[in-house]
Amino acid sequence: MSDTIFLNGMRFYSYHGALPAENDIGQIFIVDVTMKVDLSMAGQSDEVTDTVHYGEVFEEVKAIMEGKPVNLLEHLAERIAKRINSHYNRVMETKVRITKENPPIPGHYDGVGVEIVRENL
């Protein structure tokens, strides 16, 4: 089964990071979430109750990203995946990608970040 629901390019201004400057100044974080979901029932019924409401997922991600600052993107990604997998039983797998476009690292790049995949067991 290869059905997915995705939320790409969600942007949040937050104060996460292991360096003091990141906690003081903050920065924009870009979050992408992809969920494996069987969409066949929703495709037939046209009912939102037969799918995962991505507006609700956005609010879940927003609450975590704009919540209490943490040191690691890995921790944020894990919290997002756990929240989605525990709140939406239709989700079979969640992929979370978090990108910092402008971390305090000298060099030229489009961004740095993490990506995790967690099955909903």
Plain-language structure description:
With 121 residues, this protein is of the alpha+beta class. It starts with a strand and ends with a strand. It is built from four helices and four strands, in the order βαβαααββ. It is 32% helix and 33% strand. Catalyzes the conversion of 7,8-dihydroneopterin to 6-hydroxymethyl-7,8-dihydropterin. Can also catalyze the epimerization of carbon 2' of dihydroneopterin to dihydromonapterin. It catalyses: 7,8-dihydroneopterin = 6-hydroxymethyl-7,8-dihydropterin + glycolaldehyde; 7,8-dihydroneopterin = 7,8-dihydromonapterin. This is 7,8-dihydroneopterin aldolase.
CATH architecture verdict: 2-Layer Sandwich
In what order do the strands lie side by side in the largest sheet?
1-2-3-4
Number of helical elements: 4
Give the topology string: H per helix, E per strand: EHEHHHEE
Subunit structure: Homooctamer. Four molecules assemble into a ring, and two rings come together to give a cylinder with a hole of at least 13 a diameter.
Enzyme class: lyase
GO molecular function: dihydroneopterin aldolase activity
Family: Belongs to the DHNA family.
Key descriptive features of the protein:
4 strands; 4-stranded antiparallel sheet; alpha+beta; GTP Cyclohydrolase I, domain 2; lyase; 4 helices; FolB_dom; about 120 residues; EC 4.1.2.25
